[in-house]
UniProtKB/TrEMBL annotation:
Gene Ontology MF annotations: ATP binding; DNA binding; DNA ligase (ATP) activity; DNA-directed DNA polymerase activity; exonuclease activity; metal ion binding
Signal peptide positions on this chain: none
Annotated ATP-dependent DNA ligase family profile domain residues: 106-233
Gene3D superfamilies in UniProt: DNA ligase/mRNA capping enzyme, DNA primase, PRIM domain
Originating species: Oceanobacillus picturae
InterPro entries: DNA_ligase_ATP-dep_cent, DNA_ligase_ATP-dep_CS, LigD_ligase_dom, LigD_pol_dom, NHEJ_ligase_prk, NHEJ_LigD
Entry keyword DNA repair: yes
Cofactors (names): Mn(2+)
Keywords per UniProt: ATP-binding, DNA damage, DNA recombination, DNA repair, DNA-binding, DNA-directed DNA polymerase, Exonuclease, Hydrolase, Ligase, Manganese, Metal-binding, Multifunctional enzyme, Nuclease, Nucleotide-binding, Nucleotidyltransferase, Transferase
Protein known as: DNA ligase (ATP)
Presence of the UniProt keyword NAD in the record: no
Class of this enzyme: ligase
The family this protein is said to belong to: In the N-terminal section; belongs to the LigD polymerase family.
Length: 599
DNA sequence: GGTTAGC
DNA sequence: GCTAACCAACGCCCA
DNA sequence: TGGGCG
């Protein structure tokens, strides 16, 4: 299926005539949607229909909503989304390779794909390629008004402010932007000057070790300790004269082995790349040569920081300082973690007054709680007045999060209500075993609680606290219950659990009276109480994270130490965020059963 | 981590 | 100019 | 009222 292809560009074209879209990393795909017939075709003509049954199923179910438009042709990107702004190419690629329909079905269940439509080129069976882009976008919007909101099939909106869009994209570490001329027609191929792609390149540092005279590629290496590791091969991006000089250098001074010419680490370069996947750079290209830099500085550690794309809004200090001595994680690792996890974590921090724990010299050194913003804090942190010329802490975006992390914040605690609201946004059960060894008690209690909540038809979520226990969330619709009501419910449930297994569970507050039993901390849910935020790091020796779980993970073998700043970002990308449907559940939650129970 | 009193 | 000291929460419960 | 608790 021949499609209109964007032309690579290093900078964003600006002006009134341009419309901007998020670029997603997936399969470029055209959807032919006719009555009782959905066909997905890649840009190379490959039929993808069988590989993405969830898309086909969604369309079939919603066919009646678009009956008036059929047959229609949508152009878009077939993706597996990590977040609204970042797609997971590795996963969509794996999906495309699956042959067995059972395995395809399973993958569609675990990580469902989305078709993100950015253009419509056929309507009522006739081509509308000659209509201007803005008109096609309007048509597309009309079609999607009928289909409705949904994750499986959605609409990529155009934006007029590229700076704003780039900021969002940067915060989410998205793939890039597409700039499209508003009045342009749809022209297959690349012979146009109307669509440009601007990628969100990571800029990393390495040295060149080998020249391959067969294909003109240079191998990029870095130091890993004293050893040199190769991370990719690079040919494009240099001016012709520079490239020729570089080639000549390798040919004359390099040690020849077959078609290869080797040099010891000396020539340094800045490289553009989309990502590092399995120690291999994706789409690397030269940005520039760095004649004044030392190859000894091009280390694995520096690569990690380069790939993290930490915001440059504030100066990030002491990135080498050890914060978790036991596993050897540094402040740089903390900053990298919060940067990576922010799209998943920020929704739970926004619009709430925070209580943080800071431990500026690492988790084994002095720490303190903080609820008020110091006067010297940057202006981009929103201030909630709290009398006495004091202001409560807020965290509305990545820049704020980075500022907190740079100040040695290792824990983020949040209240159950948003600022300027009296109503809890969720009910949370806090299950505290006496120690890590008793974590199985938390698994037991959580499973029991889950059964009870299921019987009440309540949607619940579970996370590790990152310390010793588990916490169970019941999202509530806006202003649906008061704290007085939720208190009655948490107390009733706590007593039910305690009564069910009094030898294992207790609501006794005094530690000395608990006798090795798990504490059902129902007091912890209330106004002005706080709970550790999802994905917050913890001040534990192992650098554990308060980690959202899938309910089917709550079983023997689960333990809090399995989830650390080292592996949680990867876990969330691979498995998805178990709390991704939290907002949806909040809307759908039926609280009648709770209200009945407490009256 | 940032600020400030004291040397 | 440097170092050291100082500062950075709070509400509820019950003996 | 202050120590325990989170
Ligand atoms: Mn607790
Ligand atoms: Mn310090």
């Amino acid at each position: 299926m021949a499609v209109m292809k964007p032309i690579a560009s290093l900078d964003i074209p600006t002006g009134e005539e341009w419309l901007y879209e998020i670029k997603y990393d997936g399969f470029r795909c055209v959807m032919h949607w006719d009555k009782d017939s959905i066909r997905l075709t890649s840009k190379n003509g490959k039929n993808l229909t069988e590989s993405f049954p969830e898309i086909v199923e969604f369309c079939s179910e919603h066919e009646s909503t678009v009956a008036n438009f059929l047959p229609l042709i949508l152009d878009g990107e077939l993706v597996v989304l990590n977040t609204d702004y970042q797609a997971n190419f590795a996963l969509v690629q794996q999906r495309g390779r699956l042959k067995d329909s059972t395995r395809i079905k399973q993958a569609a269940e675990e990580r469902p794909a989305s078709f993100l439509a950015f253009d419509i080129i056929g309507l009522h069976g006739t081509s509308i390629e000659k209509e201007p882009l803005l008109k096609r976008k309007e048509t597309l919007a009309t079609v999607f008004q009928q289909i409705g909101k949904g994750k499986t099939l959605s609409f990529v909106p155009g934006h007029s402010n590229p700076k704003q869009l780039w900021d969002i994209l940067f915060d989410h570490k998205g793939e890039g932007l597409i700039a499209k001329r508003k009045n342009s027609t749809y022209q297959v191929g690349k012979s146009h000057r109307d669509w440009y792609k601007i990628k969100n390149w990571r800029k990393l540092h390495g040295f060149l070790t080998t020249y391959d005279s067969q294909n003109n590629y240079f191998t990029v290496g870095i130091y890993q300790g004293d050893d040199v590791t190769e991370i990719g091969k690079c040919a494009h991006g240099l001016r012709e004269t520079v490239f020729a000089t570089l080639k000549e250098l390798f040919l004359t001074n390099g040690e020849k082995r077959g078609a290869f010419y080797h040099l010891p680490p000396a020539i340094c370069a800045q490289i553009h790349s989309l990502d590092l996947y399995k120690n291999e750079l994706r789409e690397p290209a030269f940005a520039s040569l760095l004649p004044h830099e030392q190859p000894s500085t091009m280390t694995r550690k520096r690569l990690k920081l380069d790939m993290a794309m930490l915001p440059e809004t504030i100066e990030l200090t002491n990135t080498d300082k050890t914060f978790w001595p036991k596993p050897g994680y540094t402040k740089g690792d903390l900053l990298t973690y919060v940067r990576e996890i922010s799209p998943y974590m920020l929704p739970f921090l926004k619009e709430r007054a925070l209580t943080i724990i800071r431990s500026p010299d690492g988790v084994e050194k002095d720490f303190f709680y903080q609820k008020h913003l110091p006067e010297y804090a940057p202006n981009f942190i929103e201030r909630i007045p709290a009398g006495d010329n004091e202001f409560l802490l807020t965290c509305e975006g990545l820049d704020s999060l980075m500022w907190y992390a740079n100040h040695g914040t290792v824990e983020y605690h949040i209240p159950f209500q948003k600022r300027a609201s009296e109503y809890p946004t969720e009910i949370v059960f806090d299950l505290d075993p006496p120690d890590r060894n008793s974590f199985p008690l938390a698994i037991e209690a959580a499973s029991l609680l889950k059964e009870l909540l299921d019987q009440l038809n309540l949607i619940s979520f579970v996370k590790t606290s990152g310390n010793k226990g588990l916490q169970i969330y019941i999202p509530l619709p806006e202003q649906s219950m008061s704290y007085e009501q939720t208190a009655l419910f948490t107390q009733a449930m706590a007593w039910t659990i305690e009564k069910a297994q009094p030898k294992s569970f207790t609501t006794e507050r005094m530690k000395k009276n608990r006798g090795g039993r798990l504490y059902i901390d129902y007091v912890q849910h209330g106004k002005d109480k706080t709970i550790i935020a999802p994905y917050s790091t913890r001040k534990t020796p192992e650098a554990t994270v308060a980690t959202p779980l899938f309910w089917n993970e709550v079983k023997d073998g689960l333990s809090p130490e399995q989830f650390t700043i080292h592996n949680v970002p990867g876990r969330v990308k691979k498995l998805g965020c178990p709390f991704s449907d939290y907002q949806l559940a909040k809307q759908k939650q039926q609280t009648e059963s709770i209200l009945t129970l407490i009256t």
